[in-house]
Design goal:
Blueprint (H helix, E strand, L loop, with lengths): L14 E4 L5 E4 L14 E7 L6 E8 L12 E9 L2 E8 L4 E6 L7 E5 L11 E4 L5 E5 L5 E5 L6 E7 L5 H4 L1 E10 L2 E8 L7 E7 L7 E8 L13 E5 L2 E9 L7 E8 L21 E2 L2 E4 L5 E3 L3 E4 L6 E6 L4 E10 L3 E7 L5 E7 L2 E8 L9 E6 L4 E11 L8 E9 L1
Parallel strand pairs: 20-25
Antiparallel strand pairs: 1-2, 2-3, 3-4, 5-6, 6-7, 7-8, 9-10, 10-11, 11-12, 13-14, 14-15, 15-16, 17-18, 18-19, 21-31, 22-25, 23-24, 24-31, 25-30, 26-29, 26-31, 27-28, 27-30
Length: about 425
């Protein structure tokens, strides 16, 4: 389910890499809840053998390990690749420092960091790609993307191959966050796109060469409305056990900075194009069954005021600041005629009602009475009109007080 990592981890800017041991490894920045800056001074590595259960391998590199970094430097958007039994972690930091460190394992620790001449100090968000013939390529930049072949040492650039403007903001909407993959002879350059006004889209451009020219394809996913403050998106596409996925991040906790890693299945049409996919709650799993209990934090879209915030216990989140007309989407649920719906809510003064929709069909309405305090959780239930099939679950909130917070939601449950 989304987010894919435990809620104690905030990992944006994800690069997912299938390594020789058969596991998928996830490299990304590391946000700290409550901070008002992007990222932190450490990088973590996570891995999985099924895309559902992830292992945290801990800190693999931190800015204090970088000899040329200034004190207090933050670490941004890493990428990692394996070549001839060595694992190369490419990273960037405050002041556009760019470098690479090496390990004998995909989870590190990565040691002996060195700067990458020419790229160091000239951009952010490194990405690495190894072609079928063994040639390696390096990409970096913001607003204007540079790319060049890596020399055999994997630590320096062949500047004779440099293309200083593979894509740019004016022609392609390129903001930052480039990532390269290859499929059926085509090179897919995935990047953060500002074409819809904010940098919330991940789009792609296609070429017959790793260094272009690239033609813009379209949007893969847009994280708009994952949180009232969402601003950017950054990730990659990757294949695992024959299925392609997009890895991307969502903001949370009414902040640009507390970002979480998510995943969706993607598909290619007969012409190699990638149709846009929506954000879901199910992620890499099958549709969720409309039975049992689910946390409110699984909402994949939230509109008209609410956002997710810590539940006070340090391990979960609640849906808070719900007002009249607010709604939350949970995509997708498989319905097999559940008979009742229970929601666990707190309502200090107002209360209201929760409409339960399956796609565009209203199947129930649950009255939430005032509970006296925002931490006084109570359960409220209603019967449901029978419905079957895979649907988007919408919770729409109604109340008489048009301007004030009505309630908070902790979880909900379907009963047979």
């Amino acid at each position: 389910m989304n987010p894919i990592l435990p809620l104690t981890h905030f990992v944006p800017d994800g690069e997912a890499r299938l390594m020789p041991d058969g596991r998928m490894y996830l490299y990304g920045s590391y946000d700290i809840s409550g901070e008002t800056t992007y990222c932190s001074d450490v990088l973590h590595v996570f891995s999985t053998d099924d895309l559902l259960h992830w292992t945290d391998h801990g800190i693999c590199l931190q800015s204090s390990d970088i000899p040329w970094a200034k004190e207090g430097s933050l670490m941004y958007a890493p990428d990692c690749i394996c070549k001839e039994g060595k694992y190369y972690l490419y990273f960037c930091m405050t002041n556009s420092y760019e470098g690479v460190a090496v390990s004998d394992t995909p989870c590190g620790p990565f040691t002996n960091p060195v700067p990458i001449p020419y790229a160091d100090g000239s951009g952010i968000d490194p990405s690495v790609f190894i072609d079928d013939d063994g040639s390696a390529y390096y990409y970096w930049g913001q607003f204007q993307l540079s790319g060049a072949r890596l020399n055999p040492d994997m630590m320096s650039l062949d500047l004779s191959s440099l293309n200083a403007c593979l894509i740019d903001e004016k022609r392609h909407g390129f903001h930052e966050g480039a990532s390269m993959r290859k499929r059926n002879g085509l090179y897919y350059l995935v990047y953060t796109d500002t074409a819809r006004g904010r940098a919330t889209c991940m789009s792609y451009a296609v070429s017959c060469s790793p260094l272009g020219p690239f033609q813009k394809g379209g949007v893969i996913i847009d994280n708009i409305y994952c949180d009232p403050q969402t601003w950017n998106n950054h990730g990659c596409i990757a294949e695992f056990q024959g299925q392609w996925y997009v890895f991307y991040h969502r903001s949370s906790q009414n902040s640009k900075f507390n970002r979480r890693m998510c995943i969706e299945k993607i598909y290619f049409d007969e012409n190699g194009r990638i149709p846009e996919v929506p954000m879901t709650s199910q992620g890499a799993s099958n549709p969720l069954k409309a039975k049992g209990t689910y946390p409110a934090s699984l909402a994949c879209q939230i509109r008209n005021g609410p956002y997710l915030c810590p539940d006070g216990n340090g391990s979960g989140e609640i849906l808070t600041h719900i007002c009249n007309g607010s709604w939350a989407a949970y995509r997708y649920f498989s319905f097999e005629t559940p008979h009742s719906f229970t929601i666990t809510a707190a309502a200090c003064i107002n209360g209201g009602s929760v409409e339960i929709w399956a796609d565009d069909e209203l199947i129930g309405s649950c009255l939430v009475q005032p509970t006296g305090r925002w931490d006084a959780w109570q359960s409220f239930s209603c019967n449901l009109i029978p419905v079957t099939g895979v649907k988007t679950l919408y919770l729409t909130f109604r109340g008489n007080d048009l301007d004030r917070r009505l309630m908070e939601i902790k979880e909900f449950a379907f009963r047979a």
